[in-house]
Design brief:
Ubiquitin-like (UB roll); two-stranded antiparallel sheet; 34% strand; single chain; 103 residues; 15% helix; five-stranded mixed β-sheet; 2 helices; alpha+beta
Length: 103
């Protein structure tokens, strides 16, 4: 298990009950592996923190973070870190920023 800091920016905090910053203790999905990945964090956030099931589509699409949400791990784009398979360590900062805007 790892403890990470999580930020929800760009209005995404509304999907998470108005929470902008939080700390999460995340367990690995795979019992045979003690590494915690971003996929584990995404599952944890969806299960434990999304306050309204109707908001699930604002965060997750086809089993991953929906397009239009920038994901950074310690200020590095997750696409450079193997996306969902990026292994998290204690104290990591994971930021989710919505780039979608109404108008």
């Amino acid at each position: 298990m790892v403890a990470v800091k999580v930020e929800f920016l760009g209005g995404l905090d509304q999907v998470f009950g108005g929470v902008r910053n939080t700390k999460c203790v995340v367990q690995p999905r795979n019992e045979d592996n003690d590494e915690v990945t971003i996929r584990d964090l995404i599952d944890h956030l969806a299960e434990k923190m999304i306050t309204n099931d109707k908001d699930m589509d604002m965060f997750i699409q086809e089993g991953t973070v929906r397009p239009g949400i920038l994901v950074l791990v310690n200020d590095t784009d997750w696409e450079l870190e193997d996306k969902e398979e990026c292994v998290l360590d204690d104290g990591d900062l994971v930021s989710f920023t919505s780039t979608l805007h109404g108008g």
